Amino acid sequence: VRLETELRRAVMQERFQLHYQPKLEIATGEIEGVEALVRWPRRDGRMFSPDAFIPLAEETGLIVPLGRWILKQACADVVAINAQRVRPLRVAVNLSAKQFQQEDLEQMVLEALEETGLETQLLELELTESMMMGDVDEAINTMSILKGLGLTLSIDDFGTGYSSLSYLKRFPVDALKIDQSFVRDLERDSEDAAIVHAVCNLGESLGMKVVAEGIETQLQMDFLRQLNCDTGQGYFIARPMPLAQLQDFLAQHQ
Ligand code: G
Ligand code: G
Ligand code: MN
Ligand code: NA
């Protein structure tokens, strides 16, 4: 209960930070976008990872106002970054299950876009398979509404849920993000390598982009390039970082 009180206060006072992890277009070596990852800096100076408070925010409903703040802040930050760039960056924001079920989700997204001036096609929303498993038709309907706005949808942690291929075919999503657990042991575990290979082929067959998460080594990078994986993300490319640091990173990466 104490943590909940603290979290509620932090949400009301908007005391969170966003870190951004660059996403690399593998074929060109260019940074094409960033994923926004929320952090909670606490009074004692420690930084809480989302694993430590997103579940509580979900349970308490605080994820709704928090998620609204995250979306708006991420859009605003990327608008600021793009003012200094030739090729605009895209921004990916994680959506939680509770947010996905909100009646006014479309309204909330529209508001963030309108208030920040971010072009809709530069926004990507990351969903997880588990969000789509309850009422599949309802989930497809919600995804279609979001797609109708002109943004991009991706399935995060792909391969760890239970979505069947027959559903996947019906989901109006643009990208599959291979879960980092499959990328981690790519070099040693032939089964993981086979799964990554299969997801790359699946994406190609279904006309979806494939993003590999958790790339930590050159060997993993080379393997993914050979499979024509579209996009890479991971410590090998860059860690999640505060906005100011991202600006430096982007300046050096051009
Ligand atoms: O870096 P990392 O510790 O940032 O993130 C841990 C987990 O928390 C990941 O599963 C990630 O998807 C989730 N997460 C990070 N930021 C957000 C956010 O802004 N909203 C939601 N719903 N989940 C997030
Ligand atoms: O579930 P989601 O994919 O949104 O969460 C991303 C999480 O993965 C964040 O916690 C982020 O900090 C973490 N992450 C990103 N790149 C790497 C990596 O190369 N290695 C590891 N171990 N974690 C990573
Ligand atoms: Mn994600
Ligand atoms: Na993931």
How are the secondary structure elements laid out?
Blueprint: H1 2-12, E1 17-25, E2 30-41, E3 47-48, H2 50-60, H3 63-82, E4 90-94, H4 97-100, H5 105-116, E5 123-128, H6 136-149, E6 152-158, H7 165-170, E7 175-178, H8 180-184, H9 190-206, E8 209-212, H10 218-226, E9 231-232, E10 241-242, H11 243-253
Parallel strand pairs: 2-4, 4-5, 5-6, 6-7, 7-8, 8-9
Antiparallel strand pairs: 1-2, 1-9, 1-10, 2-3
Helix pairs in contact: 3-5
- The amount of helix comes to 40-55%
> What value does the average pLDDT take?
95
N-to-C span: 47 Å
How are strands sequenced across the largest beta sheet? 1-2-4-5-6-7-8-9
The number of domains? 1
* Beta-strand segment tally: 10
Give the overall form.
globular
Rg on CA atoms, Å = 18 Å
Entry summary:
By secondary structure, this protein is α/β, with parallel strands linked by helices. The protein has helices at residues 2-12, 50-60, 63-82, 97-100, 105-116, 136-149, 165-170, 180-184, 190-206, 218-226, 243-253, and strands at 17-25, 30-41, 47-48, 90-94, 123-128, 152-158, 175-178, 209-212, 231-232, 241-242.
